[in-house]
Design a protein that fits this description.
The protein has one domain. Helix content is about 75%, strand content about 0%. Helix 2 packs antiparallel against helix 4 and helix 5 runs antiparallel to helix 6. The longest helix has about 40 residues.
């Protein structure tokens, strides 16, 4: 039986050697994809951030901190009559919606608390989709926000930098229950 196993290994190696060029090309392309992955995450974060930021500044009174482009009275009216949020008063919905539409994009751009920001925006998008306006674009936003929730902000983010630095600290490792360099 040992002879057959050695024969099978040799046969397998011969097949792999014949396909060696394919594996080299595949591995090279995989390295390129892995190098571009952080840029894709950054692109998702920036695109989603722009969408919600623009919506947020349109709700603020014109000239508010130099960024407002709308009318607060109109915002309140819209939350009361056009797209009321079930279970929330129009005032609370307007204030909280505007607050999160301005805060979460900043967090996404920085890549700081990106999963938290994406989760809030996912909830907001779901509310829009299922209570106010059904639109396929909201489904795309929810998919992209889910990518950020499940995969994080990526290597081009403060989240990545903070986590990387934290994992170098033995006290942090002890806090989360990981083995440290001074433990046996």
């Amino acid at each position: 039986m040992t002879t057959k196993s050695a024969y099978d290994d040799k046969k397998c190696c011969n097949h792999l050697q014949k396909l060696g060029w394919f594996f080299k090309v595949f591995e090279f392309k995989l390295k390129i994809v892995n190098m571009l992955s952080p840029l894709v995450n950054l692109g998702i974060r920036l695109w989603i951030a722009e969408i919600f930021w623009k919506s947020g500044i349109l709700k603020l009174p014109s000239g508010f901190f130099g960024i407002g482009k709308g009318s607060w009275d109109t915002t309140l009216m819209l939350f009361e009559y056009e797209h009321p949020v079930p279970g929330l008063s129009p005032e609370f919905a307007a204030y909280s919606g505007t607050f999160f539409e301005l805060l979460c994009p900043i967090l996404l751009v920085l890549g700081l608390g990106a999963r938290f920001a994406a989760a809030i925006l996912l909830i907001m998008t779901a509310v829009i989709q299922f209570t106010y306006q059904e639109d396929i674009i909201h489904i795309y936003w929810m998919i992209l926000l889910s990518v950020l929730i499940f995969h994080g902000a990526g290597k081009i983010s403060l989240d990545y930098f903070i986590r990387k630095k934290s994992l170098e600290c033995n006290e942090y490792k002890k806090l989360i229950g990981e083995k440290t360099s001074d433990s046996k």
